[in-house]
Amino acid sequence: MKKIINDPETVVQDALRGMQAAHPDLLSVHYDPAVVVRADAPVQGKVAIISGGGSGHEPLHGGFVGRGMLDAACPGAVFTSPTPDQVLDAVSRCDGGAGALLIVKNYTGDVLNFETAGELAESEVRSVVIDDDVAVKDSLYTAGRRGVGGTVLLEKIVGAAAERGDDLAACVALSERVIASVRSMGLALTSCTVPHVGSPSFELADDEMEIGIGIHGEPGRQRVPVGTASEMVSALLTPIVEDLPFEAGDRVLLFTNSMGGTPLIELYLAHGIAEQLLADRGITVERRLVGPYITSLEMQGMSLTLLRLDDEMIELWDAPVHTPALRWGV
Amino acid sequence: MKKIINDPETVVQDALRGMQAAHPDLLSVHYDPAVVVRADAPVQGKVAIISGGGSGHEPLHGGFVGRGMLDAACPGAVFTSPTPDQVLDAVSRCDGGAGALLIVKNYTGDVLNFETAGELAESEVRSVVIDDDVAVKDSLYTAGRRGVGGTVLLEKIVGAAAERGDDLAACVALSERVIASVRSMGLALTSCTVPHVGSPSFELADDEMEIGIGIHGEPGRQRVPVGTASEMVSALLTPIVEDLPFEAGDRVLLFTNSMGGTPLIELYLAHGIAEQLLADRGITVERRLVGPYITSLEMQGMSLTLLRLDDEMIELWDAPVHTPALRWGV
What's the domain of life for this entry (chains A, B) (predicted)? Predict the structure, then answer.
């Protein structure tokens, strides 16, 4: 295992120290329990938007804490759900009197622990579960579909709604609309290695890729020989489009995501192909996001996410955001 | 070779198509010769800031085209200098009457081809050569030190100066001041594979890392067993600090860069260690940049860059920038 770490047992807290050092103006990091909080929290009168999950998917979620997006993120151990006390701590630090919305990716442990925290919290708390991965029905860590790339778009859009003053019920309703309109799928060219495990999560032959991979290296739909970029993009985009389905005339946000180890030159290349395939179907790409935003440590591979946009979602997507990983209008 | 590409021979132009699709509002991409141009070029009365170099280091340089940074970038083939006609084309598209500054990384081919273009151009053209890598004196592609991470900081700072209206002579003088104040060094945990070569650029054993690696995989100072993150950061930071030298009381920008395949969790971890080591020396980190900004395809590894700041550099660093890879204040 070759990694830039000191000790597999302290990777998460050591990385949090670096995040705090890198973004002193944006973040306030707490270590026991581990919570990344917006520096000016609690914001009075604003719904607190809180998310979290296993570490190893950076910048998700800590990199999305800040104005116009998350009030707090709860980082679990690598690929492990955060505990209820982390979520409770985040709620108590961020509730500015308008309650808190918990954004939960659909994994069994996450759903259970966020739910427990929601029940124990003294604040008014609602939660939404995102399950945008079309690859598989159930999986290693999930009943139902997994939450993946759509989470990034949901956190941005509902974060902007909370920032402009939408109340908790409105934030929940908007979240449900985004969740109903977003679909994703990913592929892996290589595995990743969890630090405290020390060996690759799975094995892929030198000429193989896994289509429909999960963000923890969970199995997908099939292993096939590595093809061309056009074949890869089509293998992801076709099931995504057919699932919702996205149709000619739809306006969409296209999010082309690296799993962590794929360089930007390949990601842009794939993005260009995806734009062309969507144009061929008469689907209009109105907004884009290209980069490593929800990753699986050093895994090489990519995912595509499509969100069907309406005017309000576009306005909220374009609204100012100031976080370590996404920033515009500020 | 596992890559998300269609054809090793067309990787650069295929990726440029994706960049154009992803950033229609920011960039205007030309393909013959290949030049990435700011969408509103030429900006009348503004010095044009132009850079370029081999592809495979994305987002450098095309990702830094836009308001407050570069007017154009000339992407060569992967790890190959751009040709003089690319640079000439960039100059003619971007000169708004105030001349052009060419920012050249110190590699023999780059220096020669940018120099040739400067001589052939009808515009007033000056060039500066950046050579911030303290690892080795000469190398495979260089007489003298190599240009690496400092290039990103130089492009941002001199780009802001041009944007506020500094003339060509002032931009040259500022560039020389930045170049005199910036030092870098990198390390690799894994090699990378150039698409049209198809095999790794070099071999590293499972327990080895290369200290002082170049951004094309050129040999560095030494191969040593993989150590802890603290040992790695110290192995980079000590020679950087001692070279200038940076001294107690200095104010610096610390840039912690991924070589492309290193995940953000490791990069933040390393950044935190570097901040602590600088604090121990009485050096004040005033600004930071953490992420994959000058890469070597999918290479795992990192580099550190330190820039000694003065008030004007801080003002120019903070000035608005709107490019695919760096954006703030807009």
Answer: Bacteria
Is B288 in Cβ contact with A292 (below 8 Å)? no
State pLDDT tens for residues A66-122: 999 999 999 999 999 999 999 999 999 999 999 999 999 999 999 999 999 999 999
Distance of CA A192 to the CA centre of its chain: 18
A21, A264, A266 ranked by CB distance to B272: nearest? A21
* Mean pLDDT, chain A, whole residue set: 97
DSSP-based helix, strand, coil % in chain B, nearest 5 = 35, 25, 40
Q: What is the pLDDT of residue B319?
A: 98
Residue contact A226–B56, C-beta within 8 A: no
Question: Which residue among A55, A232, A288 sits closest to B22, beta carbon to beta carbon?
Answer: A288
Please enumerate in sequence order all residues whose Cβ is within 8 A of that of B45, keeping only pairs 6 or more positions apart, or say none: B96, B97, B98, B165
Could you give the domains of chain A? 13-180 (3.40.50.10440), 182-317 (3.30.1180.20)
The pLDDT of residue B137 = 86
Beta-strand pair A321-322/B27-31? unpaired
Q: By C-alpha distance, which of B150, B137, B108, B79 is closest to B303? A: B150
Q: How far apart are CA B150 and CA B132, in angstroms?
A: 6
Tokens of A200: 């690759």
